[in-house]
Amino acid sequence: MRPVSVSQVNEYIAKKLRDDYNLKGLAVEGEISGLSRSGQHYYLTLKDAESQIRCAIWGSNAAKINMELVENGKKIVAVCDISPYAKGGTYSLSIRHVEAAGEGDLMAEFNRIKELLEKEGLFDKKYKKPIPEFPYRIGIVTSSTGAAIEDIRKIITAKNDFTDILIFPTLVQGVGAVRSICENIEKANRLAKEGLRIDTLIVGRGGGSPEDLAAFNDEEVCRTIFASEIPVISAVGHESDFSISDMVADVRAETPTAAADMAVMNTFELRDTIDYFSEQLVTSAKNKTEAQRLLLCSRSDLLFANIKSKINESASIVDKAVIVLKENDPRQVFAKGYAAVTDDKGQIVPDISIIKEGKEYTIKMTGGSFTATASDVRKDH
Questions:
Q1: How far apart are CA 120 and CA 117, in angstroms?
Q2: Sign of torsion, CA 368 372 376 381?
Q3: Among 111, 165, 180, 112, which Cα is nearest to 135's?
Q4: How far apart are CA 104 and CA 72, in angstroms?
């Protein structure tokens, strides 16, 4: 048997597909998923309950299509042609017309759960718990092998060398994802009640199609997040993705990276800030101490000057008192030839009228005293 090349096989299949009349002008009904744009072109997946197919809307056709109908979760009827890609051995549908076909099943369920939980008040701000500013430990409920966990680790360790990270390996899409997410949120809360400190939970995953993110729109997952006693940061998908988990969580982060960034304080910047203010405090204390020292010295000098002035003033008063005392000292009077007369009881006799003739009196004068008997007492007239 003569072998053929891979390229020959692909070219043959591609030609067969292009020539098949049944694959031209197909009206295909499906739900839009994974919509993206590159330049003027749009790429998406049409899916139903059992299968899916890749599609493209080329820029030349996009101008003729009502692109408001082209949104994730919407069911459309797309008029399209088969578009094989021989080099890659793949095929897709090239869409040239779009009509609305009712709301997609995923979107309908999304809106049903959203309206139900909103009516019950699960989105109310009064239930939002604050995210701790200085967490000791952060629990992360996500896949242990995806890009999200690596992004979260990288951000936290780059900003913070204090906070511990506790990972709860979790299925985040497909069969069993809902139960896995709920069990790990409940497990984190149970461990916290048993004494393992967990300050914040980050619950989420990286981006994906609406069906990839479907578990985070599940009613059970949303109610479990709402019931968590540990504050929850929801980080589901990328910036343009929005889940019901985001609405019931305490805080929504646009990406897992953003969640990690808001979950922890930058301890390196904090240390720099503390060091700066410590230096400012020391400098301020030194300046204050020096100012108080100078003030104390000034007041001490003033106090000493006042004391000296008071001493000088008191000394002057004492000197004057000494002069007065000297002037009034009886001995000074005696020196001038005067004498003091005392009776037998030692009392000064101040007036001649007290002198009685025949009675002895003591006469004190400079150098001593003597006793004399009064006689011939004469009063001045």
A1: 5
A2: positive
A3: 165
A4: 9
Q: What is the per-residue pLDDT across 135-154, written as a single tens digit (0 to 9) for each?
A: 999 999 999 888 889 999 99
231-280 tens-digit pLDDT: 999 998 776 667 899 999 999 998 899 999 999 999 998 899 999 999 99
| Backbone dihedral angles phi then psi of residue 216, each to the nearest 5 degrees | -85, 0
- By the 8 A CB rule, do 146 and 172 touch? yes
Type of residue numbered 274: I
Asked whether the beta carbons of 187 and 175 are under 8 A apart, the reply is no
Helices 177-193, 219-227: axis angle to 10 degrees equals: 10
CATH of region 109-265:
3.40.50.261
Sheet of 200-205, strand order: 164-169, 137-142, 200-205, 232-236, 251-252
Residue 43 — φ and ψ, nearest 5°?
Answer: -125, 140
Domain residue extents for the chain? 6-103, 109-265, 269-327, 331-373
CATH class label, 6-103: mainly beta
Closest CA to 111 of 77, 69, 74, 70: 74
